[in-house]
Amino acid sequence: MANFSIIVPIKEVPDIEKVNFDREKGRIDRSSATSEPNPFDLNALEEAVKIKEEIGGNITVISMGPPQAEDTLRDAIARGGDKAILLTDKGFAGSDTWATSYTLATAIKKLGHYDLIICGEKTVDGDTGQVGPEIAEVLDIPHVSYVNKTIERGKDSIIVQTEVWGRLYKKELKFPGLITVTKDLNEPRLPTLTNKLKAKSAEIERWGLDDLLDTGDEKHFGIKGSPTSVVNIEVPKEKGRKSKIFEGKDAAKKMVEQLRKDLGGI
Amino acid sequence: MQLKRWLNNYVRIWGVYDMAYDESEGEGVWIYCEQEKGEIHPVSYELLNKGRELADDLNTHLTALFLTPDGSDAQELVYRGADRIYLLEHDNFNYPNEIPFRENIVKLVEDNKPEILLIGATHFGRSLAPRVAGALETGLTADCTGLKIEKGDFVQIRPAFTGNILAHISTDRCPKMSTVRYKEFDESERDTGREGEIIDIEPLEYDGPDVKILNEMIIEDINIQEAEIVVSGGKGLKDSQDFEIIEELCSTLGGTVGSSRPLVDEGWISRNHQVGYSGNRVKPNLYIACGISGAPQHLAGMKESKIIVAINTDPSAPIFDYADYGIIGDLYEVVPKLIKELREG
Ligand SMILES: Cc1cc2nc3c(=O)[nH]c(=O)nc-3n(C[C@H](O)[C@H](O)[C@H](O)COP(=O)(O)OP(=O)(O)OC[C@H]3O[C@@H](n4cnc5c(N)ncnc54)[C@H](O)[C@@H]3O)c2cc1C
Ligand SMILES: Nc1ncnc2c1ncn2[C@@H]1O[C@H](COP(=O)(O)O)[C@@H](O)[C@H]1O
Q1: pLDDT tens per residue, range B166-179
Q2: How many domains in chain B?
Q3: Which residues, at least 6 apart from B138, have a Cβ–Cβ distance to it below 8 Å?
Q4: Which residue range is the domain that position B279 belongs to?
Q5: How do residues A103-132 score in pLDDT, each as one tens digit?
Q6: Would B231 disulfide with which of B26, B38, B173, B250, CB 3.0-4.6 Å?
Q7: Same domain, B42 and B163
Q8: Binary contact (A16, B217; C-beta < 8 A)
Q9: Which of B37, B325, B340 shows the shortest C-beta gap to A165?
Q10: ipTM of the assembly?
Q11: Is any Cβ of chain B less than 8 angstroms from the Cβ of A21?
């Protein structure tokens, strides 16, 4: 039997806690933004590491992005990934969620054997949560979204808990399969010093468009393969808030009077 | 490789493999009517309202897909605005397993070629829609807050960068699919004078399960998203016990307790209470933020509230820019005073 194999797709995103947004111009100020791994993907990676610690196997981290996304993959190796692949090519630029999912799925097919794919719930920049289930669709494997707990981890299947329909469901997913995970699942650990050193010299494989044409169809890649496009950007007007400050000894009293006036019976 | 590229281009020109179809072929607006164990989810009525508007603008019909274990409510969808219901009744639809839903929706789309397909952006909708879009090889725009027809084109509007901008998105093939944020649009009016056609369809056989459902449990539903009043605490609180003063203000007002993320991460309160980008989106009549700085990720979850009140020691905290009323001061002093005033009134 082939080695138990987990794949974690990780995206490099701008650090949105630091990024400045220019409301006048409707642009993010890229120079203010440093990059980091998508925070939700670190929960995905952490779970992969836990599963590996429990039942063995290996973890492949994979990312589609510009060449500098290599940093994110190194970080992922320092956190417990065994092998890293960076999908980078001008031909991947401008991908929407369909083209992104197709590209990642095509690369996963090329890898050959895999058991479990773990994605984050969503990315902080794309913010769609679509890429996970779309990868599963392209690969024609089952998936479970919004997993907030793994209950039993086996080599043929995993039992997970997910929140949907206002209920908690316990579901068993047969491998090969894909899950997308929420932040509740675990607390990602920090890389250790030795792992950081190991990651420094680790080899990051790079695949371009040509490398994917034996498992994928060229018409689905990049901007040409993307059915959706942004036709306009609008900077919404902030709702004009009164920003009235109550001061002095009577501040609380004035506040309650004001709220009673605005809202009636409170 | 050269040959392969050439072949791929050739295939593209002739469109041999396309599952999606050309824009000119698509006709009609469809909504997926979400149900949970046979009960129609309110987002479905919101979709019917928006869908009706789009269908009228396009001069076409509105169809609802109702995949359910129990179709007795199908007529309700007619009263709420649908011209046509595709009713698929099966026990498989009693469980949130996406695959049998996908199979049937994809088949219906391929047979009937709608122009637009809308799905509610609930957990289930956000998990099902990408499977359907992926199978059809078409575009899917997530979590839309606006949809309109502009010069005959379907424009999908969604917030990006934690709501700082709104992106207008267009899809170049059909069906054009979007998930639509819950509680963004009003529900359609119920009009028992409306007429429509209910078409019974035999569901496809599903030979799964690839995903087995082992157990189902109703969760404590604090329903912060529906609350009229929310009182939230943030890192201005020094200790988990201190949440009590937030709770006291909250119960005095008859509201629901909320929280910023750091307190949830600390384990002081459950994630059901978290307000913000990775928590719950709330839209109450009154939102009171105590000891919360107003980070964009927090604002993303509450800035649509009708009246916002901020209590913070730091006059330069961004939350004050988004508040209607504020008190600059220590929440440990201000909140008890507010409680006293409210009780005396
Ligand atoms: C991917 C991602 C998702 C996120 N999602 C969310 C989310 O859903 N929700 C969320 O809230 N955050 C979220 N965050 C975190 C967010 O960026 C902020 O870190 C967080 O909102 C800050 O919480 P806070 O305002 O309670 O704390 P702080 O920013 O530390 O603010 C505390 C405030 O309390 C004031 N204060 C201190 N003492 C007192 C006192 N005695 N009385 C009155 N005021 C006092 C201070 O002046 C300060 O303004 C997310 C971040 C990321 C990266
Ligand atoms: N460019 C990418 N490279 C690798 N993984 C990605 C990429 N984009 C999305 N993903 C994965 O898909 C998940 C959902 O992303 P999204 O649909 O963009 O919200 C992420 O949490 C990642 O696990």
Answers
A1: 999 999 999 999 99
A2: 2
A3: A98, A227, B19, B20, B171, B173, B174, B175, B176, B177
A4: 224-344
A5: 999 999 999 999 999 999 999 888 899 999
A6: B250
A7: yes
A8: no
A9: B37
A10: 0.91
A11: yes
